[in-house]
Amino acid sequence: MRNHLDPTPAASQGTVITKATLRAADMLGITAKALASVIGVSEATVSRMRKQEFALEAGSKPFELAVLFVRLFRSLDAIVGGDESVARSWLRNDNTALGATPIEKIVTISGLVDVIAYLDARRALV
């Protein structure tokens, strides 16, 4: 008999974040190569994630980076009102406040955090 409390909550968290990360990447038009750089895994791992053969492990660095990436997506999505084309354009256009295109920035941890902080500041104005 299975306990009503799932004995593997970390595994289910990993599955949820893996799916959310892939969905956000798809909606933003981010390639497997770029996503791999953002969350710190190989392209092959991203491919396995897409085939549901691999889920990010709660507490791991890739999991934490994926959580930040999903947070970035949610902030950007809220700002652009769900318009994927505007979100995709924003990611790829030069941003003088960030000193680069956001897509270039988010492949480093500090850049990812900077872009999230920028978006959070923009959201606060709305």
From TrEMBL:
Residues 75-123 form the Antitoxin Xre/MbcA/ParS-like toxin-binding domain. One of its GO terms (molecular function) is DNA binding. Residues 18-71 form the Antitoxin Xre-like helix-turn-helix domain. InterPro entries: Xre-like_HTH (IPR046847), Xre/MbcA/ParS-like_toxin-bd (IPR024467). Transmembrane segments: none annotated. This is DUF2384 domain-containing protein. It comes from Aminobacter aganoensis. The lineage of its organism: Bacteria, Pseudomonadati, Pseudomonadota, Alphaproteobacteria, Hyphomicrobiales.
